[in-house]
UniProtKB/TrEMBL annotation:
It comes from Scytalopus superciliaris. It is found in: Membrane. This is LHPL2 protein. Belongs to the LHFP family. The keyword Membrane applies. The chain crosses the membrane at residues 12-35, 96-120, 132-154, 183-203. One of its GO terms (cellular component) is membrane. Keywords: Fertilization, Membrane, Transmembrane, Transmembrane helix. InterPro entries: LHFPL. The keyword RNA-binding does not apply. It is a multi-pass membrane protein.
């Protein structure tokens, strides 16, 4: 018989697992890893005709994508264009970034799998006498190691030609030059820290769902068990 067991700790672990997976996925897909040096937003002729001033903008560069601003000379309108600069894996600007993409993708795949499984832990707490919480916690720890490897390798690619075109000639491995770090990089770091917190907290979720109070509720014949 299936018993639906919901506790504060198990629910918090489930929500954190989902949040972490989405945060890492969004960060990976974003082009806001590096914020380039300021550039003029349009040509001087357009600005002189319209009486406007050249407002600088900062192009951004991600692992495989970028955002830049293009000017429509006919209408004196400027749009920000975002998209992948690499049409395939081999066109990613640096070998270090290729390794980063692999490690982050592996970590994110594991996190998304755990996030999906965590939703069903309310009904199924063990498989083949193994606690799902403990297995998921182990997987989250492994995913965290993949994420760390990816984040360590990422700055090593700052000396590639693509990064230099955004960050200036002084950019090199682990040196930003004229660039600054964007929100996606910090989100990836924060998600990595939360991944390890989830891995540790999974043990608390397992304890909460197998406590004496839960067993007493099961013995009383209740199928829906909610405990604080």
């Amino acid at each position: 018989m299936c018993h639906v067991i919901v506790t504060c700790r198990s629910m918090l672990w489930t929500l954190l697992s989902i949040v972490v997976a989405f945060a890492e996925l969004i960060a990976f897909m974003s082009a806001d890893w590096l914020i380039g040096k300021a550039k003029p937003s349009g040509s001087e002729d357009v600005d002189n005709r319209t009486g406007g001033s050249q407002e600088p903008y900062h192009p951004t560069l991600g692992i495989y994508g970028r955002c830049t601003r293009i000017s429509h000379m006919q209408f004196s309108r400027r749009d920000t264009l975002c998209g992948p600069y690499a049409e395939n894996f081999n066109e990613i600007a640096s070998g270090f970034w290729q390794a980063t993409a692999i490690f982050l993708a592996m970590g994110i795949m594991i996190l998304c799998t755990v996030a999906f499984v965590s939703v069903f832990t309310m009904c199924v707490q063990s498989i083949m006498k193994k606690s799902i919480f403990n297995v998921c916690g182990l997987l989250q720890g492994i995913a965290g190691l993949f994420l760390i490897l990816g984040l360590i390798l990422y700055p090593a690619g700052w000396g590639c030609q693509k990064a230099i075109s955004y960050c200036g000639p002084y950019a090199s491995a682990y040196k930003l030059g004229d660039c600054s770090l964007g929100w996606a990089f910090y989100t990836a770091i924060g998600g990595t820290v939360l991944t390890f917190i989830c891995a540790v907290f999974s043990a608390q979720a397992e304890i909460a769902t197998s406590s004496d109070k839960v067993q007493e509720e099961i013995e009383e014949g209740k199928n829906l068990i909610c405990l604080l």
